[in-house]
Specification:
By secondary structure, the chain is mainly β. It has four domains: 105 residues, Immunoglobulin-like (Sandwich), CATH 2.60.40; 103 residues, Sandwich (Immunoglobulin-like); 96 residues, Uncharacterised protein PF12988, DUF3872 (Immunoglobulin-like); 100 residues, Sandwich (Immunoglobulin-like). Helix content is 3%, strand content 56%. A five-stranded antiparallel beta sheet has the order 12-11-14-19-17, with no helix packed on it. It has a four-stranded antiparallel beta sheet with strand order 1-3-8-6. The termini are far apart. The N terminus is likely disordered.
């Protein structure tokens, strides 16, 4: 008696028949596609393509992959393929346990078997944000030029057999292998070791390299940047801290500068308007350059003629420093004086400044040639000075001009004491009359 095998009939729709599976080079995909043998944790990749062989569009309603260690990167279904067009997709395989693996790849009217195997091999890990992670590459991130960064790689035999560590080397400018790499070391099951990869850039820019372990290569990357500018602290050299003085803002660095840069200093004043309060270079904002090796920068400034508080702020890179100095109220200061005698009048001129801007009490005391008091004349000019200062942006600077009529012989007047009073005190200025 003859046994008849059942006949399996597969009905394929025209839409399915017009789409075929090919490899990335365009050759037809075999029914059994082997991704090859990889080490534990290594990724194997297959790049595949669904091609529409007809002159009309086609729709793929399903594309799936089932198998341990295999993953699919493809458009979400359903998706269309234009006439004579193609859609690429990727299959990845990664596993840590040794042995053979398989997975079924299915699409509309298409089915193939994918296989891969994991060889007994060492496991490589590196420090990650959540502890040790499987080594796929090392990114050193941003590293200052002239400095060194290290990344640690651990090696472990997680198999049941005895394995040797293959040769380890590093390729690429600025990358190196630290001493003590375990190349050739024999590891029993569950034994391990470690080594460090060093990134030491000497010039700025992105760098690429490779860490080669036996037949495997892992990408290395890092970016060299300029060293950070130093942190700043401020000191004010102003002796004494008074009006109409020149001082220095000293910007000190916590370490000698390793790179060039530019800092910015600003000066703020809490007090009445005073255009003379400024940096020596002019204005209330100044920039200063720094060069490698610099330990400080010095900026000159002028205090002006107004009492108040000077606040200096310096920004250098990511560092900010601030320092203040108070200019205390002071009695009036006379910078120049003169007396002019003419027929029938005497004129007294006094130039100076009042950093309180409260000047008002005046007394003019005249003396003869022998120093004997002739007359003392008080003058209450508080309102006049208040009106003057209210409209002045020159701080406390003033010019006093007082004219006195003289009945008699004006030549008998030899000098005059001008008494100027403000809220902080009194100043007496002797004015000679030639």
């Amino acid at each position: 008696m003859t046994k008849c095998l059942p006949l399996l009939l597969l009905a394929v729709s025209p839409a399915f028949a017009q789409v075929v599976l090919v490899l990335s080079d365009g050759t037809p995909a075999p029914g059994l596609y082997d991704l090859g043998a990889v080490d534990s944790g290594q990724v194997a990749t297959a790049r595949l393509r669904l091609r529409n062989m007809s002159t009309t569009g086609a729709t793929v309603s399903s594309l799936s992959l089932a198998g341990v260690g295999f993953s699919l990167t493809a458009p979400a279904t359903p998706f269309g393929i234009p006439a004579l067009g193609a859609v690429d997709f990727t299959v990845n395989f990664q596993a840590t346990g040794t042995g053979s693996y398989s997975a079924g790849l299915r699409a509309d009217g298409i089915a193939i078997l994918l296989t891969a195997s994991v060889l007994p091999s060492l496991t490589y890990r590196t420090d990650g944000s959540n502890g040790l992670a499987l080594l796929t590459g090392l990114d050193f991130g941003a590293v200052a030029r002239g400095t060194t960064a290290q990344r640690r790689v651990t090696v472990r035999n997680e198999t049941a057999g005895i394995l040797s560590v293959p040769p380890i080397s590093v390729q690429g400018e600025a990358f190196a292998l630290a001493a003590g790499a375990p190349s050739g070391q024999v590891l029993q099951p569950q034994q391990g070791g470690e080594f460090n990869v060093v990134f030491s850039p000497q010039s700025t820019g992105a760098r690429q390299g490779r860490l080669v372990i036996g037949g495997r290569a892992f990408p290395l990357s890092g970016t060299a940047v300029e060293p950070p500018l130093p942190k700043v602290s401020l000191a004010i050299d102003l002796q004494p801290a008074a009006s109409a003085r020149q001082g220095n803002l000293v910007v000190r660095f916590d370490a000698p500068a390793q790179s060039s840069g530019t800092g910015t200093a600003t000066l703020e004043f809490a007090g009445s308007a005073d255009a003379a309060i400024a940096f020596a270079a002019g204005g209330r904002t100044a920039t200063f350059p720094i060069a490698p090796g610099d330990t400080q920068a010095v900026l000159g400034f002028q205090t002006g003629t107004t009492a108040g508080t000077l606040t200096f702020t310096v920004q250098l890179g990511q560092s900010t420093g601030q320092q203040t100095v108070a200019i205390a109220p002071a009695k009036p200061t006379v910078t120049a004086s003169a007396g002019v005698r003419s027929t029938g009048t005497i004129e007294i001129r006094v130039t100076g400044f009042d950093n309180t801007r409260t000047l008002g009490g005046l007394v003019f005391t005249f003396y003869d040639g022998a120093g004997k008091t002739v007359v003392s004349i008080p003058s209450y000019a508080t309102t006049d000075f208040a009106n003057f200062f209210a409209t002045s942006d020159l701080g406390g600077v003033f010019l006093l001009r007082a004219v006195f009529p003289v009945s008699g012989d004006a030549s008998q007047i030899g000098s005059c004491d001008v008494t100027l009073a403000n809220s902080a005190g009194t100043t007496i200025q002797r004015v000679a009359l030639p």
